[in-house]
Amino acid sequence: MKKGAPRQLTWLPRRAIREHCLWCCEDREQEIEACASERCPLHRFRFGEAVPGEEDLHAVIRRKCLDCVMGLRSEVESCTSVDCSLWVFRLAKNLRLKPPSP
Ligand code: SF4
Predict the structure, then answer these.
(1) Ligand 1 lined by 37 (C-beta under 6 Å)
(2) Residues 21-31, buried b or exposed e (16+ Cβ, 10 A)?
(3) What's the distance, CA 56 to chain centroid?
């Protein structure tokens, strides 16, 4: 996961998507605006704003992660790229929101 500096980790999937696009475009905002990769699961959400009729952003991030590892679920589960802004959401839930232990 080389390219720019480690990304700002966040609790919010919407912000995490924006951070990933900034990473993808090496922090060039105009590149994100001009992004023509409509097949990228993040494309509709790259501005970090709500999109009409949007689906669950955790599921969107999960698709991007599967995309990143050629569709191998086990690779998503064992991913060690902790400085990726999407990492905490890769299992389609926010791993930081652990349920309180009984
Ligand atoms: S939508 Fe996908 S391809 Fe386009 S900038 Fe974001 S991560 Fe990169």
Answers:
(1) yes
(2) bbbbbeeeeee
(3) 12
59-86: pLDDT as tens digits = 999 999 999 999 999 999 999 998 899 9
Q: Which of 83, 85, 15 is nearest to 50 (CA)?
A: 15
E strand segments, the chain: none
Is-contact 20 86, C-beta < 8 A?
yes
**Residue 26: CA count within 13 A, CB half-sphere:** 2
d(CA 25, CA 22): 5
Q: How many angstroms separate the alpha carbon of residue 9 from the centre of ligand 1?
A: 17
